[in-house]
Amino acid sequence: MNAPGGQASDDDGRPALFSDYSGRAVSEYFRMARWEGPVTPGGDPLFGARVPIDQHERGPAGGIRAGALVSVLDSVGGMMSGLSVLPRWIVTTNLMVRFARLDHVGPLRVGGRVLRTGTASVVSGMVVADEGQGDAIVATAIATMAILEPNDMHLDFVRPVCVPAPDPPEHQVPVDDFFSLEPGDGPTTRLDLVEHLRNPWGILHGGAVAILADEAATRAAAAAVGAMPGSPGGPALLAASDVVIHYTKPNRVGPIEARPTVVGDRGDAVVVRVPIHDVGADDRMTAVATVTVRRLPAAGG
Amino acid sequence: MSDPLAGPTGPGHDMATGGLAPGGLAGYPPEDHFLRDLDVTVELRADGTARGTIPVGPDTLVAGGWPRAGIVGVLVDSVAGAAAVMTARPDRVATADMTLHLFRPLTGPEVAVEASVMRRGRTTVVIEATVTDGAVGGPLGWATLTFALLAARAHQTPPGDAFRLTETVRTAFGGRQSGRSVLERIGWGPDGRQADMSEPAGDLVDLVHLEVDEYVRNTFGAVQGGIVALLADEAARRAAPGTVVADLHLAFLAPCKVGPIVGRARLLEPPGVGAGAVLVELRDAGAGGRVTTVADAGVVVPAATVGR
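Above: the input entities. Below: the structure tokens describing the complete assembly.
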């Protein structure tokens, strides 16, 4: 789910580890710069973003971890879609992200535009180019957002929006730590719903769900296929290459649990269904992800 | 079969969908329609799930024995649409997005889809579906769909509990033309163009044209969502010759009503260790060239995944 700015609490219970991030939004963790572009001749607003790829965000294929990029795209799509329906706002209902390459150099530049604005939803499309590889397109995404009445929440922006990238943090916090991921039983993976992961609506940021789904799906795939040749005794070399998430209810209480099951094996990849549950809210299901986890050559890449 | 739909309206009530539904509009589909040529069956159960089949025929297979993603998409849209219609009643539904993942070559005698409702919300219904082929070897694919709810018109709105299904309803659309190739009937434009994989990536290229007539329309008068998937599949494979579509993400932005519908695609990354990526866009040339559909496709070289 998306919302502008970053109004997370500064008390997440882990002050030493998270001192660099307390009070910042998830999007700031990825040091994202965002800007509103000119309107196209067809009347469509354009939107752009740029993210560096810090070393701790890289996955086994060398590029940014899938969940991290999906999280970035959730933020970009949310901002872009939200601005198009002001004074109303949006929440993510569906994200479809396809990775063309997994070996990103970075920084990554996201270009997006609103494709359709209806009475109840906004659909936007995004393309991710790798500036370190001659602007090769490395991912494409389609995001659908439901339109909300903000009620007493006042959303005020200076247009065109231009949010500079935050400075690098003094200490880099690993993705799993920032997103408070905890191992569960088998592939089941938990996320502790700490305050800095909430958006201004008070619910878990949609990007955090993507991180959780990616982690759980990759663990499920690893359990299904075992160690790969070239990594004897070690973990399989796997990375998510296709992520679809249907968000159906907000995550409010926590802990949030991902319970993945493998639904298909294509040889080059394993397809994993990942239902997400808010354990503290009567264990209700809040999202379902479908994650395609690709087998990688032993040397990576 | 006794009337399985408890309530005063029963089968035949207007519950038109982007796909189809048992007991849908009278006269739909017409005699000359792709649903008949594909011999589609749809079974709707009292528990709200739906199952449908298409026998393996001339249109079902592509290279390496893989199922044609677009034809699977036709069945997925139809079966999921039927499940969505039942849970949405008395409102109507239209397909908003579809994702399809295929796992292996098709070896069984039919393509079958089992669909169940994952969530019925205020404005949407989300459906999950498993694809099988009646053969040993596990599932053939997996799909998810979102349907937008369209409020029923007041004069069509019966009591909300009037549509409780009490037994299985089965609808078959076979007809006189059954067995004819849908792809031959549709055609894909005059030139049958394929992209050159040696060309550097550039803008999207016009690759496929679809004429819009009654043969491909749904009950809204627009091109059925599965046919849209078929068009996207065709455009993606032409953008990456020698490949098959294994993954497909589709977002339906506007109905394809006038035509011709132009399928444009661009190969982003050829298949290598994993699936390649193709970007697809469909425009309705007769409606000012508006973009009706955007899609991302994952393409694989069949030999790379057969008999692993």
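Note for the figure: The first strand of chain B starts at residue 41 and ends at 44.
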